[in-house]
Design brief:
The structure is a homodimer. Chain A has about 450 residues and is an alpha+beta fold. Chain A is about 35% helix and about 20% strand. In chain A, a hairpin with a 4-residue loop joins strand 5 and strand 6. The longest helix of chain A is centred in the C-terminal third of the chain and has 20 residues, at about 385-405. Chains A, B: This is FAD-linked oxidase C-terminal domain-containing protein.
Chain lengths: ~450, ~450
Amino acid sequence: MRNIIDELTSALGPAKIAVDPATLAAYAVDQAPVLDYQLPQAVVRAESVADVQATVRACAARGVALVARGAGTGVSGGAHASEGCVVLSLERMNRILDLNPDDETAVVEPGVINADLNAAAADHGLMYAPDPASFKMSTIGGNVATNAGGLRCAKYGVTRDSVLALDVVLADGTLIHTGHQTFKGVAGYDLTGLFVGSEGTLGIVVGVTVRLKYLPREVHTIAAFYPDFRSAAAGVLAVGKARVQPAIMELLDGGSLAQLDDIHGSDLAARGASLLLIQTDGFGAAAEAAAIRPVLAAGGAVVTMEANAEAEQLVELRRNSRGTEVDDEYRVGEDVAVPRSRLVDYVAELEAIAAEHRVQLKVVAHAGDGNLHPTFWIDRVDNAVDADAMARLGAALDKSIAVALAMGGTITGEHGIGQYKLRWLGLEQKEPVRELQRRIKELFDPAGILNPGKAI
Amino acid sequence: MRNIIDELTSALGPAKIAVDPATLAAYAVDQAPVLDYQLPQAVVRAESVADVQATVRACAARGVALVARGAGTGVSGGAHASEGCVVLSLERMNRILDLNPDDETAVVEPGVINADLNAAAADHGLMYAPDPASFKMSTIGGNVATNAGGLRCAKYGVTRDSVLALDVVLADGTLIHTGHQTFKGVAGYDLTGLFVGSEGTLGIVVGVTVRLKYLPREVHTIAAFYPDFRSAAAGVLAVGKARVQPAIMELLDGGSLAQLDDIHGSDLAARGASLLLIQTDGFGAAAEAAAIRPVLAAGGAVVTMEANAEAEQLVELRRNSRGTEVDDEYRVGEDVAVPRSRLVDYVAELEAIAAEHRVQLKVVAHAGDGNLHPTFWIDRVDNAVDADAMARLGAALDKSIAVALAMGGTITGEHGIGQYKLRWLGLEQKEPVRELQRRIKELFDPAGILNPGKAI
């Protein structure tokens, strides 16, 4: 039998196979901390469903692990290379195959960039709702693999809620179609939902049918600056009690504001110690904003209505609040979610954890969903840190997870388990549930070649 | 080994076990046409999770089929008794265990009536969004089993979109918990979604955590009467093109209006040959209604804004449009969905099919979702019909399904496959997809005791 590289080169042609060290290194990791660095044997850049099927079959025949990826913007290590694997990039499968403005649906290849789909939909007064912060770079296929969330999920739902149907290449190379082209459909088991969020461990998504929503004609943006973080978190609950559903409700602590000012030259930290950024949209946007403002003011906020240019800039700053750094073992962004009523308690706990373990902390949150992204880090001196600092960082992370779970939360609201969060999964899910998932994995991928060691 | 009835009586106490003929007959069927009438051996009325576990274990030990049911309002035969089965009624497990107005979630037992949960939620300005026409009788557990839809799905989603977590008793009696208490959560595979809509074939749902939405403070209702059914269907597309999202968009043909007038003494048929009934809700309700009205008028409708009392009555009439009759082999209500752009074409096809096969037809539709409920029937003379009429009815049904599929539709938008629609499932789903589902069933229920012969 030929080796895997020869076989792939023969089947797909040399232009789609890369084995040079620079490419292998570029495709070895996504944006998550790395626990087990591995270089792939080869990178396949598929251009068609047939390319994907040929790649899967070649790997299956040789028992070679196959790690599918989109743009590699994930932050849980779902696309990190496994030992001896082939990485299958779907970036070149980037065509919008159909966009039907009357059906309010689109059919796309997995490599279509989220923002590109939105731009095409906007021409028809439509939008693809899920908007992870990475939406200008990340692919729909990657969004599907992680069941990505984003800023406007509280009102419009997560990726799962916008996916109607999938084309999937199974571990033996078979192509199947799941789901329905219609908004509703309940024939048989929900295989579509099973593939969404499965991080390429059950099959390779090669086509996605999505439902589009109406692009709101009117958007109002409220910036509420608070004297402290906990009051801002309380503002989230107050808006909920007023029973108004914003499209976006983002919470930023003082550390996040200071960092944004550093990078962008803004003056956010001068305006308050914490920011609650709210957007309402649609026909009720003005009335909703009017209902929200007094509620926030009553909670101690300095409330401004932002003109469109400033508002867009603020939301843009929020989307970029991860900064330019990529996480590593010294700087870890978390992704817990807690029931909304526990937001204020959890924020207080985070501050206490950072103080107790003497680690740095900044927090942003998709607050409408109770989904928090605390980033813990330790300072590096000449790129070196001591073992004690590393231990303190690890302890702070573990504590932040344990506290979220004790409050009825989850260890991952939208980033996925990937490789990095596997260590905590057993704290959230009991053995019978984990065993069921292992057996589902075995059913779909008996040889275990699809993205081994991830997700479950 | 004791027989199953003795075992259940011993384990649960005689008050929870019924074997009298009247009870067995009452629990033998749901509201669907019956293809294979069977009486259960016994009916268990569980009052606790432990009761369910004991029942499952007793059936598993003896290889006895177990058919779980809520209120029995399903219309696909998902709760029809199987040969020699025990029916497990969950009606007595009807407690709302928790309703947290700050988390905007509730935890309920499966036997809670949909309307009761809504009444409890309304006290806090909240609602449970999925509203099948049966919502005054049907249970949350039954809604979960069928992934029930309803009138306001186009805006608020189907049952799946409101379910966060489940407690499920597996086929061996093990109790598991799936999902998350938070709005978002992506840890592991989506087992929750797999159980939703699985019609009791993968496990018995004994607890449901749901997300609640905000009860709209303002609702506007528009009645648009059209001179013919196709123009009314075109009105649905026109509202979509205007990019306005109503909460409810229901379409009724002339036959449905005449039947409602017969039963309720209303004067709907005198007002037009077809009715498009639209509700907008929330802060933008008035503006949305104002945007919709001229769009409908331009399409030939006589448009009225309905005062609240009349509007509620109209929506109520629509909810009761199935009439008082239960479907049987002479009168079959369908549940196809088509891509929205095909609504007008499909409505035209339905009228042609009824004429060609000389069968009666009336149609209502959750038009915003492209989900249609045509009812085909043949007249009975002295309760007798001839074989030719039966053949014509069958041919009309088959044709209506084939045409929907050819348009990219599905054979069931919200009712489920149950027993009745199994004959058409192979037309919609190809063999590899069906085989995957069989293997999932085998994984969860290797002995095949859970609601055999349904759903897949």
